[in-house]
Design a protein that fits this description.
globular, five-stranded mixed beta sheet, single chain, mainly beta, five-stranded antiparallel beta sheet
């Protein structure tokens, strides 16, 4: 991720098993010294994280989950994998952070409909996180 000045701010790595997009692990590095490693196992999320540069303490966690979840940082890919149909609304369980009191949240995706962006016919998707995506599906066969 780059800031407005074009400088690198964050680097994420996401590993998932196909075709279900089952998360395996996620890492995040920031230029301020933050690091996190999150591993998804059956019913448990484990990992560790550090704060900003001046903090050297490593915080470890082990969170039991009552349901399978997707990795929140993959939701752009998850949205593109949805079957697009105008008016459909999807509720996707996501792991919503290691510092949260409730680590499981829900991404609500509303398939608004088709929209022409320039010369591209896209699908408009709105989320409960106040984000709007435009996605295009192509058949490559």
């Amino acid at each position: 991720l780059y800031n407005q000045a074009g400088s690198l701010v964050n680097v994420w790595t996401n590993i998932a098993e196909l075709p279900q997009m089952k998360p395996v692990y996620t890492t995040e590095f920031t230029t301020r010294g933050h690091y996190s490693y999150i591993e998804f196992k059956s019913g448990v999320v484990t990992g560790s994280w550090t704060g900003a540069q001046k903090e050297i303490q490593v915080n470890k966690f082990d969170i039991k989950l009552e349901q399978p979840v997707f990795d929140w940082s993959l939701y752009g890919v998850l949205l593109a994998a949805l079957p697009f149909e105008q008016g459909k609304i999807f509720k996707i369980p996501i792991f919503d952070g290691i510092q949260s009191t409730n680590p499981v949240g829900f991404l609500i995706a509303d398939i608004v409909g088709q929209k022409l962006i320039g010369r591209y016919n896209t699908w408009e998707i709105k989320t409960n996180q106040n984000l709007v995506f435009w996605s295009q599906k192509k058949n490559h066969m």
